[in-house]
């Protein structure tokens, strides 16, 4: 398990799903959007360029594979992949499934309306779906 301390806001706003080769995969607690986070297990990293070359390649590999999996799972029209860090400095990459009739389309999901937390059944179902599909991904470097 990770020895890198997870930012308190990321821990509060998301649920753990799996440990990938580089990143912790977490599910944002907003059932309006299938929204995952990839958080590299590296200390004191706030920018992608703070990672060494091998970790940068692995981060984008994991983001691509997770995005492909999320698109297939949700039948999304578009997968948004973004790294902002204006509020939480710890490096994390958002992977968000978007559909043309979601609450925020075509704008960004950040700051749009009020989050709708998952109920326990929705959360368990989403985690189960994600975990079942993660096994089929090529996440190794």
UniProtKB/TrEMBL annotation:
InterPro entries: HIT-like, HIT-like_sf, HIT_Hint. SUPFAM superfamilies: HIT-like. One of its GO terms (molecular function) is catalytic activity. Residues 36-105 form the HIT domain. PROSITE patterns: HIT_2. This is HIT family protein. It comes from Billgrantia tianxiuensis.
């Amino acid at each position: 398990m990770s020895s890198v301390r997870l930012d308190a806001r990321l821990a509060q706003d998301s649920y753990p799903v799996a440990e990938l080769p580089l990143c912790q995969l977490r599910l944002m607690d907003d059932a309006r959007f299938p929204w995952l986070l990839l958080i590299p297990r590296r200390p004191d990293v706030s920018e992608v360029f703070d990672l060494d070359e091998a970790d940068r390649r692995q981060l984008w590999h994991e983001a691509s594979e997770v995005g492909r999996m999320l698109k297939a799972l949700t039948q999304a029209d578009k997968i948004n992949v973004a790294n902002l860090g204006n509020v939480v400095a710890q490096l994390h990459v958002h992977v968000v499934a978007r559909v043309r009739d979601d609450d925020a389309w075509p704008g960004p999901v950040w700051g749009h309306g009020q989050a709708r937390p998952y109920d326990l059944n929705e959360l368990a179902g989403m985690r189960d779906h994600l975990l079942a599909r993660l096994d089929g991904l090529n996440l190794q470097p």
